[in-house]
Design goal:
Blueprint (H helix, E strand, L loop, with lengths): L2 E4 L6 H9 L5 H7 L14 E4 L4 H6 L8
Antiparallel strand pairs: 1-2
């Protein structure tokens, strides 16, 4: 099942990634999945974006040093 997100006025790639995926580091994956909007910096309301699938384990350990993973 493909997950989507409908933008609100003023959304940006990094804020969408943070709110929907748990970290702004996923902004690049979000952009890659939604190439038709790659040149959009600030979104208007109502744009439907596909969200990449991010594994729960990957999300929790991405920002941790190796000894804490």
């Amino acid at each position: 099942m493909v997950k989507t997100y409908r933008t609100i006025q003023g959304d940006m790639w990094d804020s969408i990634a943070y709110q929907q995926l748990g970290s702004e580091i996923y902004a690049e994956q979000l952009i890659q999945l939604n190439q038709q909007y790659r040149e959009t910096y600030i979104f208007p309301a109502g744009v439907i974006l596909q969200l990449p699938e991010i594994g729960r384990t990957a999300r929790q350990s991405d920002n941790l040093p190796p000894w804490k993973r």
